[in-house]
Amino acid sequence: MNAVELDRVSKWFDRRDGAPLHVLDAIDIAIPQHAIVAILGSSGCGKSTLLNMIAGLVEPDEGAVLLNGIPSHAFRDWRAMTYMFQEDRLLPWRTAAQNVSFGLEAGNMGRAERERRVEETLALVGLASFRDAYPHELSGGMRSRVALARSLVTEPRILLLDEPFSKLDPAIRAQMHAELLRIAELRAMTLVFVTHDVEEAVVLANRVVVLHPRPGRIGEIRDVALPYPRDPLSEAVTEEVRRLRISLSSARI
Length: 253
Description:
Keywords: ATP-binding, Hydrolase, Nucleotide-binding, Transport. It is an enzyme of class 3 (hydrolase). By secondary structure, the protein is of the alpha/beta class. The protein has a single domain (2-90, 157-249), classed as P-loop containing nucleotide triphosphate hydrolases (Rossmann fold, 3-Layer(aba) Sandwich). Helix content is 32%, strand content 26%. The protein has helices at 47-54, 96-101, 111-124, 140-152, 170-187, 198-204, 235-249, and strands at residues 2-13, 21-32, 36-40, 62-67, 70-71, 81-84, 158-162, 190-195, 207-212, 217-223. The radius of gyration is 19 Å and the shape is globular.
């Protein structure tokens, strides 16, 4: 069974002039359990809309979204999926531990179990000694780790990421890539992330979905069979990046 399936999904948005905007057209994607899938494309091709459909935040106008074989409108186990946004969205009046705990507070989990999970997840991302620090006391990379911990504390099976590392400098971004791959393997998660960065797609993903714009449609689905870890400067990674850039440049605008 696939973790996520999109079956001929299309989407339109209303505009003020009354003419609907065709955002996505007949998207077919199957994402296996434990896969790491990049949705790659330029700005305006519908990447984030597609991710929001998987998350259940946006309904398709045509086609179906299935999660673990269940249509999204009937899916009830939403704690099995979490979403890491481009902005870290940390609450400035909460410590790192309190920000991580936020995702558990809406349920009926006992305090002791919440605290155990928070401590365990902060340790997982290397921030156990910063549990009592406030966001303004943390570096950009550390804030990203807190945001990642907040996404992981519910122990999801599917993690969605909307360019969460795009604002980090290259060295910190590379560290976050390595950390994400380590945790994904440790937790046996399925990762789906959107990016416009070809190199990031190749370094992280074992499958890349190239979207062409206006309306967003699949230009290519390419498997990346390179072993991890992947050195961005290696010849194999450079060649994959080159091929994907050609695929992107062939998009009909």
